[in-house]
Amino acid sequence: MTQSTNWTIWHGGDCPMHKDAIIDIRMRNGKVLENVTAGRYLWARPRREADGNYSQRTFINGGTIVAYREIVEEA
Questions:
Q1: In angstroms, rounded to a whole number, what is the distance separating the alpha carbons of residues 75 and 73?
Q2: Using an 8 Å Cβ cutoff, are 2 and 73 in contact?
Q3: How far, in Å, CA of 15 to CA of 56, rounded?
C-alpha cells in the first residue's frame, strides 16, 4: 500500500529528491500528475522553453511545477 505526504510548494531549482523517486506533481495550470518518476520532469522551467520552442504567441506557462508530494510505501 502507498500513501502520499502533504504537498510541498515548489519555487524552482534543481530536482529536490532522487531522480527515481515516485511522486505526484501539481502544475501551474492545475493539472496533477500522479505516481510519476521525479527525474522525468524539468524542475527549473517548462519543457517547451527547454526544447527551444518558446514563442511569445503560443507559450502557456502551465507546464511549470508549483508543488510536489512524495509517495511512500507503507510497511
A1: 6
A2: yes
A3: 26
Q: What is the CA radius of gyration of the chain?
A: 13
CA atoms of 37 and 7, how far apart (whole Å) = 16
Which cell goes with 16?
Answer: 529536490
pLDDT, tens digit, for every residue of 30-44? 899 999 999 998 887
For 2-56, the DSSP string reads: EEE---EE--SSS-SS-TT-EEEEEETTS-EEEEEEGGGS-SSS-HHHHTT---T
Distance CA 10, CA 21 (A): 16
Domain range list for the chain: 2-73
pTM of the complete model: 0.70
